Amino acid sequence: MSTVVDRPRDEAPYTLDEPAPKVLSFWDQSAFWANLGVSLLAFSGAATVLAPGADNVPQLPIVAGIVAMVVGTVIGGIMLGLAAVPGARAGVPAMMLLRGLFGTRLSYVPTVLNILQMIGWGTFELIVIADAAEQLFGGGPHWVYVVIAGVITTVLTIWPLGSVRVLRRYVTAAVVIALVYFYIQLSRQPLPNLTHGSWSHFWVGADAALAVSISWVPMAADYTRHSKSERAAFGAATVAYGLTQIVAYVLGLLALALVAGDSDKVFGPFQHVALGTLFFAVFVLREADQSFANVYSTAMSIQNLVPRVDRRVLTVGLSGLIMVFALALNMDNYYDFLSLIGSVFVPMLGVLVVDFFCFGGRRGWDVSERAPARWSMIVAWAVGIATYQLINPGNMGWWSRLWTDVQDALGFTPSSWMSASLLSFTAAAVVTAAIGALSRPDAS
């Protein structure tokens, strides 16, 4: 019990047995989500919005990519906001919340998947920080940058709510200044034709942008459980994240235009302008909040499996693990695996939103360790997953071949207008609504 006494009242609890303090205001959360919306991965990943073909040649013009990114981000931001509300209402982290949706034991399935994807994304973040730092400082020992980023990540995760407030007070202002500066500088460069190309794969690009927003859904409640109100949780996640992701991706698309769509050279335009190195350093340093969010949410997910383990022990161990992975692993092929895991959370959100706002969640979910299994919700989730994979089988070896075989057996060919994210979300939501309506007690 000594840990409870030692913990500051305005800091996150160490175990799931302790209540979560409601201390984060709208502005605290806005700063947190705004910083997550600006990422080095957003700059390099902007190429995915252009829907690259087999030869990695952008199929969308830059202007179409910007419009697709705005549309996808707005929709994804609303979905993220919807995922934020249940955490604020129930006061529990994201994977513990799924006990109410699926039952305690069944919630372990998405929990394990989330642990795998969060460790993977945390590793990616350390790699991208180290790579950017090498470019920033003109070389140096790669492992030193990885370790420094890992240490910063560890410190942030030990005091997560204090870190959120620091982001609001200091970091956000520096990021805004850097963004404005780079917009001015890059827009003054000789840009190529931004309208050349076909808009035929518009929804593929929009789906890519939407998927980035959705990737934060499995950890939203880890932070919004500390929100002072549901309105603050929804507004901050929807507006602040959506706005900054749009700003960051448009900037990334402009940088891509300057390097002829080569994502490996996308950091170059930032450093080649006057004072570019100084302002780019702001992005490199604040990228640690991305790895912080991934590592802290991994710890929250693990606590759904072992609720009484101290989160500080978990985050220190996890930070060390992703440092080792960042130094030892080749992550190129792992990206497709992470994308596959992320895709399963899109339809899960459809199930969660409908059940929480329309059916069981309105009466209050059972999130205890004895929450009963709800197989019907698993069925709705599975329908959504199947819908996603039929439209977008991905590039995961035997798994992708399985779904292309199913496509052939059904005589189904996805059209370019089909959004895997939107249609899988809708399919899961419709099935959940049907199950809820059929299982509702007779009004008489």
From TrEMBL:
Q: Name one GO molecular function term.
A: cytosine transmembrane transporter activity
Q: Does the keyword Transmembrane helix apply?
A: yes
Which superkingdom does the taxonomy of this entry point to? Bacteria
According to its UniProt record, where is this protein located? Membrane
Against InterPro entries, the record matches this protein to:
CodB, Pur-cyt_permease
Q: Which family does it belong to?
A: Belongs to the purine-cytosine permease (2.A.39) family.
Output this protein's name.
Answer: Putative hydroxymethylpyrimidine transporter CytX
* Topology term for the membrane: Multi-pass membrane protein
Q: Name one Pfam family in it.
A: Transp_cyt_pur
Q: Where are the transmembrane segments?
A: 32-54, 60-85, 106-130, 142-162, 169-186, 198-221, 233-260, 266-285, 313-331, 337-359, 371-391, 417-438
What do the Gene Ontology cellular component annotations say? plasma membrane
Sorted alphabetically, the keyword list is: Membrane, Transmembrane, Transmembrane helix
Q: What is its main location?
A: membrane
